[in-house]
Specification:
It is a single chain. The chain is an alpha/beta fold and about 210 residues long. The protein contains 6 helices and 10 strands; from the N terminus they run αββααβαββββαβαββ. It has an 8-stranded mixed sheet, with helices on both faces. Strands 1-2 form a two-stranded antiparallel sheet. Helix 3 packs across helix 4. The protein starts with a helix and ends in a 16-residue tail after the last strand. The model has no long low-confidence stretch (mean pLDDT about 95). The structure holds guanosine-5'-monophosphate. The site of guanosine-5'-monophosphate (5GP) has 21 residues, from strand 2, strand 7 and helix 5.
């Protein structure tokens, strides 16, 4: 069991409809120590991968992306969401269906913030059906940039997003992969993964 799985077991709440709530450390209140550990673990898992930009989608990916951007010392861009049809002027625009809000969002990046020389590491809080990740990939490709990897905090392995992205050839690293969860018994099973060994338990980003 790794630090994130342990945190989910202690603080996560399983809701009806296959939703895992982790508001106490990721989606509402942000636990900086957990974010820091996640950033270090992504950096370790993507070691040897060239990255000059971190990309996420508002809002919950921003905290992880920021700490990761600090570790790589590269800019962090977050795609914005909007329900209204946007003019495509000066923006790369894609669409993603929101699993949690049950609605279609336009997602966009202003053109100056993504370009053909970018080697992009995509990060997000959750991976479910892969809608958000595919929209981000689409935006990167519209800019002529390259997706170097996809780092996910919590992958819901019972949904199709992770297997689809991997079958498309993307390097996906998920720190916790939920195999199954039951809201009535509040039980959760994770896919076996190598234990995350932190080199320095007293991590600092400075
Ligand atoms: P996908 O686009 O892969 O279908 O879903 C991922 C997005 O939906 C994430 O950005 C996340 O915001 C949200 N999401 C999907 N499933 C869950 C969940 O079980 N819990 C939470 N908190 N967010 C989720």
């Amino acid at each position: 069991m790794n630090f994130l799985e342990e945190k989910i077991l202690v603080d996560g709440v399983i809701k009806e409809g296959n939703i895992l709530k982790v508001d106490s450390f990721l989606n509402h209140q942000i636990d900086i120590d957990i974010m820091r550990q996640m950033a270090y673990e992504f950096k370790r898992r993507f070691s040897g991968v060239e990255v000059n930009k971190i990309l996420t989608i508002e809002a919950s990916g921003i905290a992880i992306a920021t700490l990761l951007g600090h570790l790589y010392d590269v800019p962090v861009v977050f795609a914005k969401k909007s329900q209204t049809a946007n003019s495509t002027d000066d923006k790369y625009v894609s669409q993603a269906y929101s699993f949690t809000h049950k609605k279609m969002n336009n997602v966009f990046i202003s053109k100056p913030y993504m370009n053909a020389t970018d080697k992009v590491l995509i990060v997000d809080d959750f991976l479910a059906d892969g809608e958000a990740a595919h929209a981000l990939i689409d935006l990167v490709h519209q800019a002529g940039a390259e997706v170097m990897g996809i780092g996910i905090a919590v992958e819901k392995g019972q949904q199709k997003g992770g297997s689809k992205l991997r079958s498309e050839g993307y390097h996906v690293e998920s720190l916790a992969i939920v195999e199954s969860m039951d809201w009535q018994t509040q039980t959760i099973k994770f896919r076996e993964q190598p234990v995350l060994k932190l080199q320095n338990p007293n991590l600092t980003l400075g």
